[in-house]
Amino acid sequence: MKRSTWIGIGVVILLLGGWLGYRRLFPTTRTVGSLVPPGALLILASDRLQDTVSARTFRTEMSLRQIPVFDEARQRLDRFLYAAADTATVLKFVSGRNVRYSLHSISKTTLDYIFYIPISDSDQPFINRLTNPDPRQYRVLNHTFSGEKILDLVTRTNDPVGSFILTDDFLVGSVSGILMENVAKRMHQSLKISQPEPNFKVDSDNLAAISVRPDVIQSLFGNVGSLVRLFLPEELNLQFRQSASPSHLIGYAIDQIGNRRDVASLFADQTPRRIQHAYLIPQTTATLYHIGISNAARFGRSLNQLLGSASSDFLRDRFDQIKPAAKPLYQALGSDILLCRLESRTGALRQVMIITAQNGKQLADAYQQAAYQAGAKASPPKSFLGHKLLLLNVPELPASLFSSLFSGFSQSWITQHGSSLIVANSEETLQDYLQQVQRGAVWSADQRQADLLNSTLRPANFTAFVRLNRAHTTVPTTWPLAWQNLLDQVDPATGSPALANLENMAYQASYGNENIQSTVVLGRTTRRASQAVLNKLLLQKKINLDAPLLSAPIAVGGLSASSNQFYAHTNPGQFVLVTPEGDKLIQGTLDGPIRSNVLSIDFLNNGRLQYLFMTDQTLYVADPIHLKKAVAVQKIPLPTGLDVSYLARPRGNQQRNLVALAAHVDGHVYALDRQQRIFIRLMSAPHKNPLQLPFQVIATPTGMDVLAIQADGTLNHWQENGKQYPHFPARIERTNEEDSEIHFVGTALQPPGRSTIETITDQGQLLTLNSNGLIAKRTQLYRPVRRALFRLFPDEDLTNWQLLRLSDTEITVLDQGGERRFDVRALQSGRNNVRYHRLGAGVDVVSVKSGNFTTLYDLNGRIIGDQPIPSDFPITLQFDERTNEIYILTSAKQAVELFSIRLR
Known about the structure:
Blueprint: H1 3-25, E1 42-46, H2 55-60, H3 68-81, H4 87-94, E2 99-107, E3 110-118, H5 124-131, E4 138-145, E5 148-155, E6 160-166, E7 170-174, H6 177-186, E8 208-212, H7 214-220, H8 228-231, E9 236-242, E10 248-256, H9 261-266, E11 285-292, H10 296-308, H11 313-331, E12 333-342, E13 351-357, H12 360-373, E14 382-384, E15 387-392, H13 397-402, E16 412-417, E17 420-424, H14 427-438, H15 447-456, E18 462-467, H16 481-487, E19 504-511, E20 515-523, E21 537-544, E22 554-556, E23 565-569, E24 574-578, E25 584-589, E26 599-601, E27 610-614, E28 618-625, E29 630-637, E30 658-663, E31 669-673, E32 678-683, E33 696-700, E34 703-709, E35 714-718, E36 730-731, E37 757-760, E38 765-769, E39 775-780, E40 789-794, E41 801-806, E42 811-814, E43 820-824, E44 832-838, E45 844-850, E46 853-857, E47 863-870, E48 876-880, E49 885-892, E50 895-902
Antiparallel strand pairs: 1-2, 1-8, 2-3, 3-7, 4-5, 5-6, 6-7, 8-9, 9-10, 10-20, 11-12, 11-18, 12-13, 13-17, 14-15, 15-16, 16-17, 18-19, 19-20, 21-50, 22-23, 23-24, 24-25, 26-27, 27-28, 28-29, 30-31, 31-32, 33-34, 34-35, 35-36, 37-38, 38-39, 40-41, 41-42, 42-43, 44-45, 45-46, 46-47, 48-49, ...
Helix pairs in contact: 10-11, 11-12
């Protein structure tokens, strides 16, 4: 063949290759991937996102539109399409189409979507309506950017609705004009062949698909620990399906292991498994980690290597220090290592680590030995509910043994429960944990949580689980601001933020040699209320008694449980046990009406909680004996002059026999010694003047403090040994001679986590004092013409506070800065009682009793319940987060009544 022929063939091949290469970079028929601007945080696809959802389905099932990221995408598309046509036309157009959405960052605080709707020639009538909308409402403008025509849909007043570009195959639109200009720019750029479009599969089994960048997942799960990012794959491509439970959706993914081989080696030869010890997970768990172990010896060797090469110098040095105790500890491990972060009303970190064991004694001994090698000193154990509680005062011991995923333990309070070792970061947290376990407020006893663990969550090596919308554990506060702004919008259909639709979020991972199998679980276990019962006051139980009550009924345990019991104190002085079956069993007599609050403590150290309360002359200890349906009542005489209206729980006290505190009319603080069964003076006030109640008990690393103010402005700050801190007692003086004498009718409070002290005079001077009692800030609040008194308004557990302005017939609740929240007027003179309840899960309630009825308000002044609650005495409130119900124990005439109110 001639040379010229070869040259011709070569030229043809070169031209053909060049043409194919050009078409590959600039195709005539574009895919969605060729239209998506670079830097998308996530790309999702679904053909059902715009489907309508019935009210019944909304209450009982989890649909795509209830997941916040999907819901926001749906709302953006709805706003655009419904501007062009009526509902029927829009649904006909969008139904069954695999619409894709990409999420992009516009600024540091703003995210928005682009949507990509596939179109064909048959859609031309709808396109015509979109480009020629009703001129009485909308008009379409256009401009050119990067050679592409961008159409802008605006209202008659020039408010933008959205911008869009029409290609041969897609309608591409966004609320953001900036993002549409990025699409136009993208259409004239070459494609990066190395970044193929995600292979989404949307069919009858797969409701939706989503591709997420790893840094996005890290930022959204960052609230549950910095090390969670090590367990995530480098890329996550999820296919969402309905789970076995209709209340949850599950996304599945298999991604390459990439640089996660160090984590995979930790789980080598570890069979993925479900959580085995659900009966040890308390109901108030807001965040949960789980590591599943099937081969303890192998896991211990892998963890040994990981900690030996830890990037943290502290962990590496600490592990070298405690290494001799680590091996027997790892060998004793059982199937589960659990870290529970409990719900916190104060924002304090409340953590419990549950280490299951093959040999419980060996595990406990090894853990203590590790603590002693790290510098902990032996201390005598405390007793609580039949458990020995031991303080190991050495920081970050769990992280030293199990990696910094388990950080947050400034000290270790440990106890053994069955064969498991329980480690808490404070004594109060451990006591709260044991109380929940004792009364069965655990996940295995909650059918919905049990179903979540046993059916919905998958077997896995690692699980990170978060319950959203919990008090001071809500995820969005730790998310980047741009995500908060995107997802905290109110859904017009429900009137609540999109995040309110989602309660549970879990990431699970199982590790192989080449791939990570990931599962993302989204849904809710809390029941939704139908409109028929929403916010209705419902009577759950009514027990008629033979005589009127002398005091408010006392709740024993949880009000929502089927085994709830009540104590009633009737007019002849009889102390009556009301059983769950409604039986009324007389247990003896009391020497007068109950004057104080009720304190539940392990007074007798018999593994049960006893209930302490005071009459005018006596402190009573009621010990429920459940098997015999009886109550053993013991009496302790009160010293003369003791204020019987308030009992306080000691916190952090080193004297283990002191179980309750009370104030004396001379300003002293007395403590109840359970061994001697007497009240002893613990703290003495230099000025004989009653303390303003409630006084505050503060747990410190060295023991217990008590902060209390007297009516004349004397502020006392005692240490546990009875001595006052330097500069105390401090006297709050008036500002000048013209001022009337300074006077206080409310408490002084050091808010948890703060060093300043807050209080207010009866005339409305809001005072902030520093740690030595000097006034750092003084603000005079507005005083109405009609005389009113001010006082600090703390919740019943003294974890937070508002301000209260009250007169004889009205009250005003103010925020901490003195700004009005709401008023309640037309109250009955002299027959009023107002209380602030923090019930957990972010539910804060103010109860206002006037006459024989009580009304509940949220902190915005909205009434909770459709009618007042009959109440001869102040009511008892509890919140059940499983059912979203407030339970109310009250009494009226000759009956004890239990009501409930279902929240949204």
